[in-house]
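Is this the right way to post structure tokens for a design question? Let me know if I should format differently. Anyway, here goes:
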């Protein structure tokens, strides 16, 4: 590893990404274009963006740590995300698009009432701060450990850079970054895997000398009970997380929303195998990592095998993939605050210019909160404990009721609040209160089962009760009336707005094509420092250059339609 070359790569690519974000600064005309990209995003871009929004450096730090300790079970855990994507594509994503709402919070207000919406908004904003703060910690730890920078200043600088990017560019800027990080990280992993196999002594050495149970589908505390509960959690999380709902509502029709989720699911069949092989191989190279040091397994295998420059590239990819994940959360939380709090309650008559100012200011305020959370993660058990605990406590209670409301005409606002509060209270009791007061502690599987199973059972019980008593939610009946009125008042699309949206999408595709070409050129330059890996790097660079032709041709077709 050459720190000077790697740092130069990080600086060059970071400046390039920031310029990409700034290039979209003039495309945010109103809330619809800034937060939903005009509801005309191509489904394949939405799917890749969903995939990368779900993905972050935490994937390498948290799941990489599990892969190093326990082996193949880290892949099994991530395959539950594929199940969540399939169920979402089949049933949930098209339902979200069919609502006609800009945000999940807007649907909750119309379907379950303003009181439920306000409660959910504040809880959602708090949970987003916690989760994305932990994600920022992951990448700050990677960058600081690899380049020798102090952790706290790294966290603050990287966090500020992330906020600036999102506050300027909106959803299109976030999605373009998502695509670039997908390409960079895929390229980097394809380079790492053969080099790691070589360092570990080859495939036969890996298969015969790995620890006992290393290739078991379940292992350690990650049992079949945990896998089942985690799969159910991901149905709720991928189908109902407000961040991901934005990907389903920003495409043109319900069928496209399903395709977004299907592409996500397909990518999560293959990618966990590719991602988890390097830390599993490192177990053979260096079996001595203990405790929180295992969080560095991915970083250490990269440092062990990668030639100069490529370490900088994968660090940049990890940072911006994390940034993309946090950017998406920032974009959605800002959308909820601007659309559902400021416009909905504080200033309903606000102009588009005023709303855009509020959107960008709220991105900064929320982002600074994420930085604060990231700074305290090391003091509360590390990234694995923090991530799984937040998911277990909040996932089911917050995400299951709105998804249920997409399909049920019986669930009402009062029942939703009771179910959410009871479930959150039970999860906090078993996760935080009892372990400290009476030393009663649930294992991973039971913790996750309580977290997602309790709200599901409560929702089912209420549905059965409401059906037996023939109750239909008043909020549901009011929503049907609102939708009928909206359908009558529906106006034909404004030709000027439609043209502006098309131009925005064409511009986005051109930026993606140019950015892919830039990545290819950067890899060609790094071939001069790659020594024995130069041929492999050059082949991948050529593949990326050819890949750039796809969005370029799509942009030309789009421009031709309105030429």
């Amino acid at each position: 590893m050459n720190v000077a070359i790697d740092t130069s790569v990080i600086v060059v690519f970071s400046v390039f990404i920031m310029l990409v974000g700034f290039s979209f600064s003039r495309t945010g005309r109103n809330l619809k274009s800034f937060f939903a990209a005009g509801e005309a995003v191509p489904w394949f871009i939405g799917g890749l963006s969903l995939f990368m929004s779900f993905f972050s450096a935490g994937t390498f730090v948290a799941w990489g740590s599990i892969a190093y300790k326990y082996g193949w079970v880290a892949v099994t855990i991530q395959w539950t995300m594929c199940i969540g994507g399939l169920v979402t594509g089949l049933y949930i994503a098209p339902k979200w698009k069919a609502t006609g709402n800009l945000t999940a919070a807007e649907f909750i207000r119309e379907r379950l009432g303003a009181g439920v919406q306000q409660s959910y908004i504040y809880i959602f904003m708090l949970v987003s701060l916690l989760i994305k703060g932990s994600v920022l910690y992951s990448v700050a730890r990677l960058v600081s450990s690899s380049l020798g920078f102090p952790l706290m200043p790294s966290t603050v600088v990287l966090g500020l850079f992330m906020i600036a990017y999102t506050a300027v560019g909106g959803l299109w800027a976030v999605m373009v970054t998502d695509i670039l990080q997908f390409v960079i990280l895929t390229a980097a992993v394809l380079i790492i895997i053969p080099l790691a196999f070589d360092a570990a002594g080859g495939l036969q050495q890996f298969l015969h000398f790995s620890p006992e149970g290393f290739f078991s589908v379940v292992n350690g505390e990650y049992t079949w009970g945990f896998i089942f509960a985690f799969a159910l959690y991901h149905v709720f999380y991928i189908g109902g997380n407000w961040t991901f709902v934005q990907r389903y509502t920003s495409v043109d029709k319900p069928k496209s929303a399903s395709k977004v989720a299907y592409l996500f699911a397909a990518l999560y069949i293959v990618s966990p195998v590719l991602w988890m092989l390097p830390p599993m191989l490192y177990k053979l190279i260096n079996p001595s990592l203990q405790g929180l040091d295992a969080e560095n397994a991915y970083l250490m295998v990269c440092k062990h095998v990668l030639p100069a420059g490529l370490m900088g590239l994968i660090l940049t990819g990890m940072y911006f993939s994390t940034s993309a994940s946090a950017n998406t959360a920032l974009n959605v939380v800002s959308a909820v605050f601007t659309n559902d709090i400021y416009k909905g309650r504080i200033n309903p008559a606000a102009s588009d210019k005023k709303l855009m100012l509020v959107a960008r200011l709220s991105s900064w305020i929320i982002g600074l909160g994420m930085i604060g959370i990231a700074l305290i993660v090391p003091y509360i058990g590390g990234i694995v404990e923090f991530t799984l605990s937040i998911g277990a406590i909040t996932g089911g209670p917050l995400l299951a009721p709105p998804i249920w409301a997409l399909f049920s005409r019986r669930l009402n606002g009062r029942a939703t609040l009771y179910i959410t509060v009871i479930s959150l209270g039970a999860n906090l009791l078993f996760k935080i209160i009892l372990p400290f007061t009476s030393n009663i502690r649930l294992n991973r599987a039971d913790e996750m089962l309580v977290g997602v199973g309790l709200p599901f059972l409560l929702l089912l019980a209420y549905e059965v009760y409401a059906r037996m008593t023939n109750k239909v939610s008043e909020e549901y009946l009011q929503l049907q009336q609102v939708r009928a009125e909206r359908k009558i008042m529906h106006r034909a699309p404004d030709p000027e707005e439609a043209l502006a949206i098309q131009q925005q999408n064409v511009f986005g595709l051109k930026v993606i094509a140019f950015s892919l070409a830039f990545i290819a050129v950067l890899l060609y330059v790094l071939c001069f420092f790659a020594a024995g890996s130069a041929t492999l790097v050059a082949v991948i660079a050529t593949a990326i250059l050819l890949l750039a032709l796809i969005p370029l041709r799509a942009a030309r077709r789009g421009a031709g339609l309105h030429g």
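Format looks fine. Someone answered above. Worth noting: The two ends are 49 Å apart (CA to CA). Residues 134 and 400 are 23 Å apart (CA to CA).
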